Amino acid sequence: MQRINLLYVITKLELGGAQKQLLSLIEHLNKEKFRLFLFTAKDGLLIPEASSINGLTIKKSRWLERPISPLKDLLALIEIYLFIKKNNIGIVHTHSSKAGILGRLAARLTKVKIIVHTVHGWSFNDYQPNGERLFFIWLERLSAQFTDKLIVVSNYDKQKGLDNRIGKENQYSLIRYGIEYAEFGIKDQNIRRELGINTNDLVVCMVSCFKPQKSPQDFIRLAFLVNKALPDARFLLVGDGILRKKIERLIRKFNLEKQVTLTGWRRDIPRILSAIDVFVLTSLWEGLPTSALESMASSKAIVSTHTGGVAEIIVEGKVGFLVLPGDINKMSERLVVLLKDNNLRMQMGQNARESLNFDFALTNMIDNSQNLYENLIKEKEMVNAN
Question: Which residue of 148, 179, 219, 315 shows the fewest CB atoms closer than 10 Å?
Answer without folding.
Answer: 315
